[in-house]
């Protein structure tokens, strides 16, 4: 049986994005794993989201969005006490965003931090059936900032190994989450980096930004980074509008990134890129030569770019027709 499902695990949260004047703001559904799950569905990939959100208005909006896109949420946890997290996002004049903290008006502890493996285990038979049909599991490292959710992700990763599910990790370093979380706020940067490195050893595919590569490995060469990790994963390093460096299926190379003067908001661009890459890995049944890999990475980069042409992450994610139209024209 050919496996085609992709499970995305981790945070679903609200991006409260300030406008260019940084005075008014708009709320958008976000969170890297949730973004990837939605972007995959727009690219006709069977995706699953497993995480924890509040039983609040934002939680209801997430559920409606997931159902609209037909994302599987059978293992989504709803918290009656803790709210869906709201992240404050500021933008500079070029559309690049930076996180400035969280909305703590309702609580200082959020639903995603209470992601509980015991609730998942209540229907272990169905979960194992799901994993038996899954090709890739996608997660980030933010989930490690809470000891409860970290325990849950480690349980799910062990289940992935049991069913030969390939693990894709997007490093997605966001120090503000660690500074704020009760269980990690007392840890120093070295302790946090060491904890994340241990998770990266479980990856079969690792995506990270250039600055993350330098911070965690003091290196920006995909091959050398791969050789320092236990599973010798494929490594993809993004660098904004600069070429993408990669090591995929034993082949190393770079891919030029498509550009546009119409960038509005870069929120979720990396998540759309990752979803685009996964869709192509499935389409090619894993690319075996440089030409196929170049096409896969180019397709993914266009998914990321098109997401930047409007506000918010999920709203702007492209479907196949939009990507292929741009792929053919290369003009924006």
From TrEMBL:
Enzyme Commission number: 2.7.1.-
Q: Which SUPFAM superfamilies match?
A: Ribokinase-like (SSF53613)
Q: Which GO terms describe its molecular function?
A: ATP binding; kinase activity
A Pfam family name for this chain?
PfkB
- Top-level taxon of origin: Bacteria
**PANTHER family, A to Z:** HEXOKINASE FAMILY MEMBER (PTHR43085), PSEUDOURIDINE KINASE-RELATED (PTHR43085:SF1)
Return the similarity comment: Belongs to the carbohydrate kinase PfkB family.
Name-wise, this protein is Putative carbohydrate kinase
UniProt source species: Prochlorococcus marinus subsp. pastoris (strain CCMP1986 / NIES-2087 / MED4)
């Amino acid at each position: 049986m050919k496996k085609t499902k992709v499970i995305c695990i981790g945070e679903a949260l609200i991006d409260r994005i300030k406008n260019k004047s940084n005075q008014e703001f708009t709320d958008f559904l976000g969170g890297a794993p949730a973004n990837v799950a939605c972007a995959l569905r727009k690219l006709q990939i069977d995706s699953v989201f497993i995480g924890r959100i509040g039983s609040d208005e934002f939680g209801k909006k997430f559920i409606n969005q997931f159902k609209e896109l037909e994302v599987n949420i059978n293992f989504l946890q709803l918290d009656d006490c803790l709210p869906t997290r709201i992240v404050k996002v500021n933008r500079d004049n070029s559309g690049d965003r930076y996180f400035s903290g969280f909305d703590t008006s309702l609580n200082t502890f959020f639903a995603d931090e209470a992601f509980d493996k015991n609730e998942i285990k209540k229907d272990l038979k169905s979960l194992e059936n799901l994993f038996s049909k899954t090709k890739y599991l996608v997660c980030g490292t933010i989930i490690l900032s809470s000891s409860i959710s970290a325990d849950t992700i480690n349980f799910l990763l062990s289940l992935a190994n049991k069913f030969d599910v390939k693990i894709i990790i997007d490093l997605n370093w966001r120090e503000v989450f660690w500074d704020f979380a009760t269980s990690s706020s007392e840890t120093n940067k070295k302790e946090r980096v060491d904890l994340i490195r241990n998770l990266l050893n479980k990856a079969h595919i690792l995506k990270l930004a250039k600055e993350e590569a330098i911070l965690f490995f003091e290196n920006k060469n995909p091959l050398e980074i791969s050789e320092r990790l236990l599973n010798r994963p494929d490594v993809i390093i993004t660098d904004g509008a600069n070429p993408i460096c990669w090591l995929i299926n034993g082949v190393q190379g770079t891919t030029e990134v498509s550009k546009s003067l119409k960038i509005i908001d870069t929120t979720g661009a990396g998540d759309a890129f990752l979803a685009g890459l996964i869709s192509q890995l499935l389409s090619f049944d894993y690319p075996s030569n440089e030409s196929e890999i170049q096409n896969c990475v180019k397709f993914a980069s266009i998914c990321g770019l098109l997401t930047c042409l409007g506000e918010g992450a999920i709203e702007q994610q492209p479907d196949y027709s939009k990507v292929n139209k741009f792929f053919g024209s290369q003009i924006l």
